[in-house]
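Quick note —
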Amino acid sequence: MPDLQPVLLVGAGPGDPRLITLAGADALRRADVVLYDRLAAPELLDLARHADGHSDGHADGKVQLIDVGKAPGGQTVTQDDINQMLIDHARRGRRVVRLKGGDPFVFGRGGEEASALTAAGIPVRVIPGVTSATAAAAAAGIAVTDRRASSSVTIVTGSDGDGGAEPIDWHAVANVGGVIVLMMAWRSIEHIAARLIDAGLSAQTPAAAIERATTPQQRVITAPIAELSESARTLNPPVTVVIGPTVPLAHPVADLPLAGWRIVVTRPAAQSASMIERLRALGSMVIALPTIEIRPRQDAAVDAAVQRLADGQYHYVALTSVNGVDTLWNALQHRQFDARAFAGVRIAAIGSETARALSRRGLQADVVPAAFTSTALSDRLAAEDLAGKRVLLARAALGSPVLRERLADAGARVDDVAFYDTVTPTPDPDALAELRHAADLVTLTSPSTAQGLVRMLRDTDSAAAQLDSLQAVCIGPVSAAAARQLGLSVAAVADVYTVDGLIDAVLQLASEHPSGLR
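Predicted structure written out below.
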């Protein structure tokens, strides 16, 4: 039998994927198998999908993701089945993560799973999570304890009688004082409120219902406990209920400028993390749908260009994207070269993001145009003495000919070398479905992202109607022109042709249309 790794019971937090602990995120990146609950954010599963260095538990080296979520009114997998799956995968020597919403040991059956594993001789480690028992209230501006009003909090499950625990003593709960937090209780809230009132709790006790706490879909409704179920009847689980004297003391929660907006990010998966993070921090529900994938080339043309660069044969290197920087640098390293290959070479970058990608590798861009376009870069370079100078143009296989032609017209000897191909990846079906039915905006950071998006949609039915319904925000005029030519409606174009400029354009659009574009 292989060495047994401890099974990790990991708390996913209250909803926002950024609220998982660092230890929890690290466990997901190292996992071979993840058994996850219904409320685990898809972005957390992406941590496991995109991680490198998995063990050899699978022939393809990929993590195995197993949905064991329990939906209200039914179970897809029984708890005994979950326990057995944990045991079986652990006995195969795999690194197993059991990903549970909130905290594993707060109404999460983590104790049962830990006991089953221990009885089977398998080590267990718990990585606690932020529980919605307190986080939901905090996200709504409510303190569960406040020395002005309450020095205690009682957390109760609405699943009364589930398992072998003693039935809930609602009389004791009603009379203990302080704040009461009800979890997994929304479908029974009218009955539970009546029980509490019958047990002596005032019908006018302040209460709050918090739907999908900490996520962009969060909604909060307050009312006296006797009226809460009627006032908040439009809410759907997961809903956390807070009852008690701290509810009226809630501080106003700052509005997020993109709250309620569903925004599609089409950048390649490897480059989209910071953009997605910022949009989420502004309150947006982000739909990650990479419409292009970067595939570095390893061919004779790349080998020859790298060797000429290392031999000092180039006077200039021109880079038109972060992808060009990445693939050129990786090609150099693959052939055992480093930054010394750029000695005596002037480096031209199309814009600030490309310049920053160079800077991260210890290289300083000598030429950066004021406007971040190929035309502006060619104008800036043409102003230099290029007669007889050799230029390496490292970029995508299907790059615009404008830069090459302008440099040649200025007398340069241009080696236009394709360091990478831009291809359309297989779309995630869930993200594609959200794009079709729920997206407010789609962000386009290059003509190729627009082209990839249209290719994806044309593989589905009624593509023309889908294109007509999409509103695009583009990183610059070149991307906007490509989007319009493809039949997309352009709602806004960034003034500064960077991701930050793109997000600023989204914010401006949202401020001008507070009720949305639909």
